[in-house]
Design brief:
This protein has 111 residues and is mainly α. 44% of the residues lie in helices and 9% in strands. 5% of the residues are buried.
């Protein structure tokens, strides 16, 4: 999830600098997730407003969902159950390590 620091209800309320920061964080997270867990693709989006499913009307946030060829999304429809193939803490540590490595690569790369 990518969340701006300032509480705003919609994308239109973000400043240009906030929008750029969100996209920069999104790019980093996509690269980190790719490096850590090797998905085949991603869903990236936001629910804006209560009618769209936003849990908090006055705070926009963006979801990044890794996807794999052949994965299915039937479990939440059938029984409100999420299928996770590994412990959340293990995924967190993989992603944290990948992000640290990417940031290190960026600081040591020559211009």
């Amino acid at each position: 999830m990518v969340v701006p620091n300032r509480h705003v209800p919609s994308i239109e309320d973000l400043t240009d600098a906030e929008s750029a920061e969100i996209m920069s964080a999104t790019r980093l997270m996509l690269r980190g997730l790719t490096k850590a867990i090797h998905p085949h693709g991603f869903n990236f989006g936001a629910n804006i407003g209560r009618v769209s499913g936003a849990g908090i009307d006055d705070h926009i946030h963006f979801h990044i969902v890794p996807r794999w060829n052949g994965d299915t999304n039937f479990m939440p429809v059938l029984s409100e159950t999420k299928v996770i193939s590994e412990e959340l803490c293990a995924t967190y540590h993989k992603l944290k390590l990948a992000i640290q490595e990417l940031k290190k690569e960026n600081t040591t790369a020559s211009p």
